[in-house]
Predict the structure.
Amino acid sequence: MAFGSRFFGRLRARFRKEVCPFCFEYFHLKEAPFRCSSPPAICAPAPDSVLATKWNLTAPKGKVIPAAGYRREQNCPSCSNKTRKRICPHCHQDLPHTIGEFRNYIIAVIGAKGAGKSHYLPALIEQIKNGIGPNLGLLLEPLNDDTIKRYRRDFYGPVYTDHRTINVTMSAITSVDVRFPLVFSLLFTSGKRGGGRRINRAVTLAFFDTAGEDLHDPDVMAVVNKYIYRSDGIILLLDPLQLDGVRSRIPPSVPVPVKDHDTSDIIIRVSNLIRAGRFIPQDKPIDVPLAIAVSKIDAVETLLGSQSQIPPGSDHAGGFDLADTRAVDAEMQAHISDWNSRYLIDQVQVHFPRHAFFALSALGESPKGNTLAPVFPKRVEDPFLWLLHVNGLIKPKK
């Protein structure tokens, strides 16, 4: 990134409020304490009462060093070594090292139980890294060691290495791990004279995998799903096999899951949560962009018809394919209406004026029991790129 862009980015950070990607509380950068980053042999770790209270993390950590305004580093009073590791003033989780330079964008991936959220995340991340990312000059990288380990263990490993389905996501009430995001930096690059790549812009992305059951109780949502109303964009996965109009028409060869809560109920709870969290009156629209993605589209391809725009896939090389998105949006709304779920569309149009409907398949085909065939995702990048587009981060194709 050019010096001027970096300088003005830091200058803007002095005035804006940051949001912690763990507890979702706002703060000014000058309020963020530091944590000693010296090895334990040099500076003995100490208990952190805030981590213990907020997260039930009782293991000793590097000593907490008081905030020092907008200084980018601070000396530990115990060992005198400098540290650049900043922590959230509210919950004491380590903040991304890009804090103060790049803005955090929180992307929420939600949906009813069994909608495919856990499989969608690794399919999306790998598609950005190895598929569409190079065509758009996007480089996605994990920001911390926790993200590297959890992504490999809980997402990439099962799907791409072991070829098995991911276990059902535990409720955030019973599993602290679920409350932590997968935090990535997204670099926007271009070629430069003489070879190599230039970083033109960077943002921090926090992805969440929410248990479907956590969206059934408004009180639980208000406590553990606070990130939803702090989000810069929401991807709502809609399982077509839960729609009555699909279940009655699907061929007998397609396994139909047990009926779960209606997606329309989730839209009600999510809109109520956002209105309460952002103090939006009931008669005002919600400005958070919402991408409604019909998942498992491979299971219902026989219901799409021969003129469907879905099977060919999208082409975002050189920019976001807005024309394709509009065509798919219109088609999916028509299908959802035909599947006796027009009410869901009406809800979205009333509460979320910035919305679009998508279709995707994270795996490419239905698993056989717990076994997966080699994964060939379809259109998993479309809703994510649309959210980048509406947030002003990527431009449409000419």
Remarks:
- Residues 169-174 have pLDDT under 50 and may be disordered.
- The CA atoms of residues 104 and 374 lie 33 Å apart.
